[in-house]
Amino acid sequence: MDLHGGNIYKIFREKEVDKILDYSSNINPFGLPESLKKAITENMDILEKYPDPDYYDLRKTIAEYNGTGIDNVLAGNGATELIFLYMKAVKPEKALILSPTFAEYERGIKSAAPQCEITYFHLKETEDFQPDMERLKDELQKGYDLIVLCNPNNPTGRFLPKEEIRDLLSECDKYGTRLFVDEAFVEFVEGGVSSSLAGEDINKKNLFIIRALTKFFALPGLRLGYALFFDSSLKEIFDSLKEPWSVNAFAELAGKTLFSNTEYIEKTENWIKEEKKYMFNELSKIKNIKVYKTETNFILLKMYNESASHVRGEMLKKGVLIRDASNFTYLDETFIRLAVKDRENNNIVIKKLDEVINGDNENE
Amino acid sequence: MDLHGGNIYKIFREKEVDKILDYSSNINPFGLPESLKKAITENMDILEKYPDPDYYDLRKTIAEYNGTGIDNVLAGNGATELIFLYMKAVKPEKALILSPTFAEYERGIKSAAPQCEITYFHLKETEDFQPDMERLKDELQKGYDLIVLCNPNNPTGRFLPKEEIRDLLSECDKYGTRLFVDEAFVEFVEGGVSSSLAGEDINKKNLFIIRALTKFFALPGLRLGYALFFDSSLKEIFDSLKEPWSVNAFAELAGKTLFSNTEYIEKTENWIKEEKKYMFNELSKIKNIKVYKTETNFILLKMYNESASHVRGEMLKKGVLIRDASNFTYLDETFIRLAVKDRENNNIVIKKLDEVINGDNENE
User: Which CATH number fits the domain A48-258, given the four candidates 3.40.640.10, 2.40.10.10, 3.40.50.300, 3.40.1130.10?
Assistant: First the structure.
């Protein structure tokens, strides 16, 4: 599989380079929290038992973190398992996906409901990919059973505040439309989880939210995601479809350890607040590209004179892996995506990108 | 979920007991290999990356261990993911399951192909649950597209040697019937993986084998299983259906570490060879039960005067969790299953079982 354009293992195997700065995946540069390393070292023996098939304690911790009930929480092997599971449970017949966006929603729908009529709601380049909410509400009248959006959106970095999601949800309620929101990057938004609708005391029956610990806690290798759902009739369907023990014991431990790590959380919040501004400003100084405003830890760029595949290749020669964003629906070979990481590496990547796009001597 | 009768977490939550000897799950009593603990401690940072979506190195190690090609190997989140994936890929219309057996095969078929006509091939109590191969071959004439068997079989402990599987497979070839064999416990059989057909140089197109590292390497919490398949046309289907990164980075590390741990493997082989005999002999001395011969690390028992639920409850009061086997197809409330563990605990469990079945003063 050559997933999402960033298979570093394949790159190493094929010996394109032997060391790499990975700006294609959007992982917190502070790395794995020390508290989790400690917990793993001290609890190695939990591997000798099957995980709790109900993931009771884990779900309790997640519920407390989000201000929901434990019965609103479903744990999964990364958010990916939950995308596929949800699609299997609701088997949509007519779905609307706000696009460009992460490709797995469509893959999940097609896998669960091959007959589903999938329509893209076009997030327009001319509108800087910000959803036009009035146009979206009009579109809802066409009678979808499912709306899918990613918030903040990958790869555009745009974020809809919870008031907008609340309005959209109440519009969905009119038509009996389910609303799927991927909040895998929500902790990087200013306000963090409080900028989500998850903990609000309103009718959320049609809302389904997925989250991952992957990005914020820098543990994509551990595989922990969760869903927040508010339609109790889904519980039985999930139970009947879910494969047992999909969350491993260390992922379970991570969930129980990390939400209370306020030091790591605050440190990350402070870093991203500064660094996304810095990186946006510095990238904006580079000629011949357009930099899209972001509210999370990655940045979409459009290049006026270069192709993504060429720039990706040239950056790779310089030891930096970036995301060629041309395979997102509605994007083309002029788009790339960069992660936001620590200042030192960001500066290196910004400089190299300028070199690739404008030539080595551009600023001399 | 109250899976397979042994949810110890629920028991603890409901405070039935606060410490337990778990004889309901069949895990190697030597526990997590030290080499893996060391590898995890020294490679904590692999969690900061996504696992290799191709699991190339892991599959290479597995292929070498089994004498197959790397393209014959599929890695999964425990064997469970692979049961479900296989059923989704082949979508059987008429399946035969050798029963009693592990319930997940039927669950997997029903989830993937709800219309599938499922027939049980009855492994008879009067034949000590040993499959009658002639009767099975006759049954094949009815035109199944899939035969499912577990070898060694859970919960009966019976094992079909590879010559029998080879004959069965060649019979399957006549009718274009696929043969699914769960070998999750094969390493506990005398001869280990060499008693499997996996590495034999014959036409194995219709054969699909699943394995887990769960039981033998005592890591049910880590979630690593794999499949060996020989029908190259399945590869594309698996690729299209498989959820990415279902195997976590530590599970990947375990696969790369453990197959070369010959010390642990030999120690375990020596232990199980002795201990299954010992436990069979000692249990056979208990009155009012029948002990079935086993070739693996668990033992099926039939009780003449007691019900499984009663005995399970009484054993739990004594701090031992056993498997009430009454919910296996064709078994009833007279059946229980015990793990084979270390000598000291086996003696404790044997004594307590005798007390529960025959009264505390039975031997006085």
Answer: 3.40.640.10
